[in-house]
Automatic annotation (TrEMBL):
Keywords: Aminopeptidase, Hydrolase, Metal-binding, Metalloprotease, Protease, Zinc. The keyword Protease applies. Its EC number is 3.4.11.-. Its cofactor is Zn(2+). It comes from the Bacteria. It is an enzyme of class 3 (hydrolase). One of its GO terms (cellular component) is cytoplasm. This is M18 family aminopeptidase. SUPFAM superfamilies: Aminopeptidase/glucanase lid domain (SSF101821), Zn-dependent exopeptidases (SSF53187). Belongs to the peptidase M18 family. One of its GO terms (molecular function) is aminopeptidase activity. GO terms for biological process: proteolysis.
Length: 419
């Protein structure tokens, strides 16, 4: 059931280009939502319950929703995340020696080290100013590089040697002796602010390669941050399109920090989403409890497509491929939140959307990752199903999916909101 109309994927490419970090993703999502008539709300303000679209942002996480007129008796939540594995700049970044200027970084999340070598990198993130204001910055040009050791000096390079995260993954950014404060002065100047007024920063290495189609018929799509901007973008598109959902409240919740365990005040293990849902229903616990019991959540994150060079790494009876539509992700040990009730929620949504779908299960001897699904489902006590697109090269600096699949995922999200 090919879509062939790839305007959604074209738009995803533009979203990825505008969103090198979680903070930029929230800003771009907000821009798109406001263009569709949504209104940003501060958590410290009183919130209206009038019909309309609204959103709020906390520390790189965004929650958006639509209210129709009348009572609201249930939520339909599409969950995702805004962060991605990369390298985070340390508080005092200037380092180096032997005539090289380097930037000290920490590994953020499950980075596939080798894919970041010999790649032109930019720097993006946020600066928090003396007065608490947040300034986004993206030095959108080649700035950093993690150089590979020449094969002449590393004859075992093709034998799977491990890189030391402390000593062998430090990017270079110039020549000369490092000077304390130089890098942050440069970043502040790029952002148009005084470095003395920068009281905090969250800065990350960002891959510069533009998203692109590939393959004989452009049936494949390659980009950084498919994990998990495909889901964030799909949720935004579906929420904007979900204009009539009756008494159900459609919600998009895309969290920061998923790649490092979700344990912050703004992440899936925190109270952010629960607080928002309470405010939409009101203070009465009975009304809120009944709404939660009638609600459903779809946790959307990427999953592993069958790798043609490593078919033995995949469960024989469950081999999803790009182009086949979203997957329902199943785990007996609940690393994915997908039991029988949850599978039925997925099937109803897919049927309403008219999209193809696939099933993903890990091999018994190769445990996979997990998602916000079990976390948010447990936190809220809400029926939750795990879904996602099949991709290759997950957590690489360049991931690959089917060109049609992002559009299928957005249709699935709309099916959840409206079925």
């Amino acid at each position: 059931m090919p879509r062939f109309d790839r305007s959604h994927t074209d738009d995803l490419a533009a979203f990825i280009q505008a969103a090198p970090t979680a903070y930029h993703a929230c800003a771009e999502a907000g821009r798109r939502l406001e263009a569709a008539g949504f209104r940003r709300l501060a958590e410290t303000d009183a919130w209206p319950l009038d019909p309309g679209g609204y959103y709020t942002v906390r520390d790189g996480s965004i929650i958006a929703w639509r209210l129709n007129g009348g009572d609201h008796d249930a939520f339909r939540i599409f969950g995702a995340h805004t962060d991605t594995p990369t390298f985070k700049v340390k508080p005092r970044p200037d380092t180096g020696g032997f005539g090289w200027k380097q930037i000290a970084v920490e590994v953020y999340g499950g980075v596939s080290h080798q894919t970041w070598l010999d790649r032109d990198l930019s720097v993006a993130g946020r600066l928090v100013m003396r007065d608490g204001a947040e300034v986004l910055v993206h030095v959108d040009r080649p700035l950093l590089r993690i150089p590979r050791l020449a094969i002449h000096l590393d004859r075992g390079a093709n034998e799977g040697q491990k890189l030391n995260a402390q000593s062998q993954l430090t990017p270079i950014w110039g020549l000369g002796e490092p000077r304390d404060g130089e890098f942050l002065e440069f970043i502040a100047a790029e952002a148009g602010v005084d470095a003395n007024d920068v009281f905090g920063h969250d800065l990350f290495a960002a891959a510069l390669d533009a998203p692109a189609y590939l393959g004989k018929d452009n049936e494949l799509f390659a980009a950084w941050r498919l994990d998990n901007l495909t889901s964030t973008h799909a949720g935004i598109s579906a929420l904007i399109a979900a204009e009539d959902t009756g008494t159900r409240v459609p919600v998009l919740a895309s969290f920061n920090y998923e790649e490092i365990g979700s344990m912050t005040y703004s992440a899936a293990q925190g109270p952010f989403l629960e607080s928002v849902l309470h405010r939409l229903i009101g203070d009465d616990f009975e009304t809120y409890a009944r709404a939660i019991a009638a609600s459903g959540m779809m946790s959307s994150d990427t999953g592993n497509a069958l790798h043609p060079n490593y078919p033995e790494k995949h469960e024989p009876g469950h081999r999803p491929l790009p182009g086949g539509g979203p997957m329902i992700k199943v785990s007996a040990n609940q690393r994915y939140a997908s039991g029988a009730e949850e599978q039925a929620l997925f099937r109803r949504s897919a049927d309403a959307a008219g999209v193809p779908w696939q099933t993903y299960v890990n091999r018994n001897d190769i445990p996979g990752g997990t998602t916000i699904g079990p976390i948010s489902g447990t936190q809220l006590g809400i029926l939750t199903v795990d879904v996602g697109l099949p991709i290759l090269s997950m957590h690489s600096a360049r991931e690959l999916c089917g060109s049609d699949d992002p559009g299928y995922l957005a249709d699935l999200a709309l099916g959840l909101y409206t079925h």
